[in-house]
Design brief:
alpha/beta; Transcription Regulator spoIIAA; six-stranded mixed β-sheet; 4 helices; 40% helix
């Protein structure tokens, strides 16, 4: 199901290419006008994910600083819930801000959803052995 988030952004959520991977697909403009509505959806997916979450930004046409914050907040939430987290991004309008701010050194960024799903699964943090 695809839903409108703000006037110029759409989002959908579906199962990923591998079992246990949730994919949050974002299209259009990812800016301050859309991230406030998108964050609760992303957080809920991270909290319920089996193993990993991929944020698919391959259809994003504008990526502002609010998008960077959304990804960093998602990465932090994934760490807290021991869930792998990665981003699929192929266009310079998304990749350039990720590189300039060095967010791509923290968040795993891959060229498509398939590669991001594998990276996210490998990124998954194993449970602390002290908890057993």
């Amino acid at each position: 199901m695809r839903m409108q988030v703000g006037p110029y952004c759409t989002v959908s959520v579906d199962a990923g290419p591998q079992a246990g991977v949730e994919v949050v697909r974002v299209g259009g403009e990812l800016d301050a006008g859309t991230t406030d509505e998108l964050w609760p959806l992303l957080r809920a997916r991270i909290e319920r994910a089996g193993h990993a979450v991929v944020v698919d930004l391959t259809e994003v046409s504008f990526f502002g600083s609010a998008g960077l914050k959304l990804l960093m907040d998602g990465w932090q939430a994934a760490r807290e819930h021991q869930v792998g987290f990665a981003v699929a991004a192929a266009h310079e309008q998304v990749l350039k801000p990720l590189r300039i701010t060095k967010v791509d050194g923290v968040v795993l960024v891959r060229v498509d959803v398939d590669h991001a799903a594998v990276a996210a699964l490998l990124d998954r943090i194993a449970p602390d052995p002290a908890e057993y």
